Amino acid sequence: RPTRIGFEQRLTGEVSNADLARTGFAYDYKPKLVTIEKLDQKTCYKLLLTAKKKTTPYRKILYWVEKDTFLPVKVQFYALSGKLLKVGEYSEPQPILGKNRVTKLVISDAIQKSRQSHLTYSDFKKDQFDDAFFSKESISDE
């Protein structure tokens, strides 16, 4: 049976544009602590994230973060229908720019489990921008 998904959830591999560019957990979702549980030998907070707006890429996300470090461990993305679409697993934390950060994310298709995308983050750098960069006037129509 087909599963209805929003336009933002169209896939490129197992990763959609929403996964990479549009999913802002802290800004777009309201968190609720579900439970504290063990996951991969780590004590984790299991959070339910519900979308604040209908235009948010996913209406529901389950998100596990390590209790001691607050580093992400796992994420599950759900379709509008409530069906599980994708599962992400975070790994390989490294000290970068003064903080411990995960450097690998594997996103698996929850329906076709053999399909995966591997994202490796590297070459982190800190940039400074002039305040004018963030004004409406700096936006070009070109």
Give helix % range: under 10%
- Strand tally, please? 9
Q: How do the strands line up in the largest sheet?
A: 3-4-5-6-7-8-9
The largest β sheet comes out as: 7 strands, antiparallel
Mean pLDDT: 82
Distance between the termini: 43 Å
Output the number of helix runs. 2
Give a written overview of the molecule:
The protein has two helices and nine strands, in the order ββααβββββββ. It has helices at about 15-20, 25-30; strands at about 10, 15, 30-40, 40-50, 60-65, 70-80, 85-95, 100-110, 115-120.
How does the SSE layout of this entry go?
Elements: E1 11-12, E2 15-16, H1 17-22, H2 25-28, E3 29-39, E4 42-51, E5 60-66, E6 72-78, E7 84-96, E8 99-109, E9 116-120
Kindly summarize this structure in a few lines.
This protein has 142 residues and is mainly beta. It contains 2 helices and 9 strands, in the order ββααβββββββ. The protein is globular and about 45 Å long.
Question: What are the salient characteristics of this protein?
Answer:
142 residues, mainly beta, seven-stranded antiparallel sheet, 7% helix
